[in-house]
Design brief:
about 325 residues, alpha/beta, Metallo-beta-lactamase, Chain A, 7-stranded mixed sheet, 5-stranded mixed sheet, 12 helices, 14 strands, about 40% helix, binds zinc ion
Length: about 325
């Protein structure tokens, strides 16, 4: 566990919490000035126990936490919030679009995406397996009941919490992702990550999620923070280079997809299988179902971006969508 001070002596402690059964190793929570917690963590007894144990090792009791600042609605960042609420009643902050999404229903958010995947050629048998394995669907009861009981304070870009924590809207990874800025340091949630590329998927809350994400990365470059404290992995000491790297990654992926469509018309399902994903699986059939959800969603976000640039379009044939390049 690390404790560090940003330059005007704001005390920050990093608390890494395990995520059993989620396919990701750990999530980073940050304790600011012994009383603010950035992100709540994962609804699992091992995670909860580890949070209490680690707080105790830095002489903080759970109920010293007066406010929990949520970056986005994903299970590893938010789902433990109802437990923290029932123990100590801290204040909870979240971005306004993320709050709308939660009120409409996080399960509905996922279901709407899956409905679109069917229209885009994904077999229904595969959709069923994705539903059963999706992290939000596995915790659907927590989202439907317990999280809805929390009275969040919603925040938007430029808001200040207690005159020293600035809210920076960073949509893309999720439609209402926010980061928190203290001095020249940004707590980014999953909007910028050090080693993996944040997932950016199609959804009904954003017309162009990849455009949102690229704009977020450009915003980070213009803010030029000294460091980024991400939701997973190590501190990013050169945020501008990392943001530029991520922009380049997506540009390459856009070119890759355009190359496929310059050869042939494809459904989303076919394109997703053609993309060279940076994963340890060789073929689509080896992809775990939750990862198929993110791969399909990400490929669709790229297609929507290419369409907004006037480079590709789609047509419907026998109730299914096919994409084509306008250059062919
Ligand atoms: Zn996330």
């Amino acid at each position: 566990m690390k404790c560090f001070y940003v330059y005007k002596m704001v005390k920050i402690d990093l608390v890494k919490i395990p995520l059993p059964g989620l396919g990701i190793d750990k999530v980073n929570l940050y304790v600011v000035e012994n009383k603010y917690l950035i992100d709540a963590g994962f609804y699992n007894i091992v995670s909860f126990h580890e949070l209490i144990r680690k707080l105790r090792s830095i002489n903080i009791r759970l109920c010293d936490i007066e406010a929990v600042l949520i970056t986005h609605f994903h299970v590893d960042h938010l789902s433990l919030a109802p437990v923290l609420k029932d123990f100590c009643e801290p204040d909870f902050y979240i971005g306004d679009i993320e709050l709308k999404l939660l009120r409409d229903g996080a399960d509905l958010f996922v279901k709407n995406i899956l409905e679109e995947f069917i229209r885009q050629g994904v077999p229904e048998t595969e959709i069923k397996r994705i539903v059963d394995s999706h992290p939000v669907m596995r915790l659907a009861e927590i989202y439907k009941r317990d999280i809805k009981e929390i009275s969040f304070k919603n925040v938007s870009d430029g808001d200040e919490i207690d005159n020293f924590i600035e809210v920076v809207s960073t949509p893309g990874h999720t439609p209402g992702s926010v980061s928190y800025k203290i001095e020249d340091f940004i707590f980014s949630g999953d909007s910028v990550l050090p080693t993996i590329t944040p997932s950016v998927i199609y959804n009904r809350y954003s017309e162009n999620p990849l455009k949102d994400h690229l704009n977020t990365l450009r915003k980070i470059i213009s803010i030029n923070p000294k460091a980024i404290y991400p939701g997973h992995g190590d501190v990013i000491n050169d945020p501008v280079s990392r943001a530029e790297e991520l922009i380049k990654f997506h540009k390459n992926r856009l070119e890759e997809i355009l190359k496929f469509l310059n050869r042939n018309d494809y459904s989303l399902y076919e394109i997703t299988k053609l993309i060279k994903w940076r994963v340890r699986y060789n073929i689509w059939e080896e992809f775990p179902y939750p990862e198929r959800f993110f791969a399909l969603g990400e490929a669709l976000a790229h297609l929507i971006y290419l369409r907004s640039e006037g480079l590709v379009d789609y047509y419907e044939k026998n109730g299914m969508i096919y994409w084509y390049s306008k250059a062919r």
